[in-house]
Amino acid sequence: MFGQNVKLIQSENQELKAKIELLESEITILKDENSTYKSEKDKVKDIVEENKLKNALTQNLTNGCIHNIQFVQKEIENNMVKQEEINTLNSEGSKIMTEVQENVNKIFNIDSIIEMANGLRTNAQELNDSVVSISDVINLIKDISDQTNLLALNAAIEA
Fold first, then answer.
1. pTM confidence score
2. CB atoms within 10 A of CB 93
3. How confident is the model at residue 109 (pLDDT cuts 50, 70, 90)?
């Protein structure tokens, strides 16, 4: 009977050892998984921090672009107002020149004075053409500025 008890205890002892080995194996696997999860958590944390920095950089670039666009828009609006004033002055100047020419023709009937008035009219027209050219350049600058701001914003987004 004592021999049977010893065999039973030995059998139970072997079963317990097998279970302990199985548990130790599972603990090792769990430790490895836990280590992997910690590593992944650290990577995610680093990615979150990097994204926060990218977001802040993008926000700063966006604010700078908005500020620059607003500045350029104000300057373009000012230039357009000035161009309208110049056009008005040119139109008034042209009317005055016509009146002066008519008065001079009435007072003097000299061909050279007529030629001079025509020259002044040509100069006024050239001045008006120059104003139109300046307007075209301003519009080109605005287009380039818009494209530059879009490129900067695109670069910031890609960063």
1. 0.38
2. 17
3. low
